[in-house]
Amino acid sequence: VNKRKPYHSINFIIAHDGFTLYDLVSYNYKHNEANGEGGNDGCNDNFSWNCGFEGETDDASIKALRSRQMKNFHLALMVSQGTPMMLMGDEYGHTRYGNNNSYGHDTAINNFQWGQLETKKNSHYRFFSEVIKFRQSRRVFGREDFLNINDVTWHEDNWDNYDSKFLAFTLHDNNGADIYLAFNAHDFFVKVSLPPPPPKRQWFRVVDTNLESPDDIVPEGAAGTGSTYNLSPYSSILLEAK
User: Where are the transmembrane segments (predicted)?
Assistant: First the structure.
């Protein structure tokens, strides 16, 4: 009716208001005391999960889970049809320490932390950067028209199960360079049966957010993926047919 296209939509996980991406996975509640309004300002509905501890922690398992969650969110955003929008600072994990209404601060809460970016250059920042490059180089993520039945296959037969926290689908490329994606939000492993790749091709692992850098994203793809994949808790994968 209105001739809208996928690229007319703006997709985002995080915007200028609310939590940063790091705070989304580190805080269940707003912490706005520094704003001088008694904590009464800012939204109370943050749709966040602190991964088991509120705020900063030295617990290695919680920190690893938060890292995976940020990578999961970023991957989901970058494989979505439409125009992606990121919040500056999320590429290195900027924190406002749970402040979701920080407009009045000219401090480290809002200022870009170049030193933190430098320390994350070969890990968190590398993943975010490489996923963006991968999106830009694969046309299946930037279609001119909305997906039709021939463009995507959903590997799901239990849509009405509200306890299910697993989702997988294949984006089809006319030249056989299909992309398989799976997201496991369960707290347990899910062993999935992979669909057959297109003729004369095999699946290469590009992304597994559970792996440490630089294995979490291998732009050229890592060979050796079989007919099944054991997907870790709170993780996601991207496979490419080559």
Answer: none
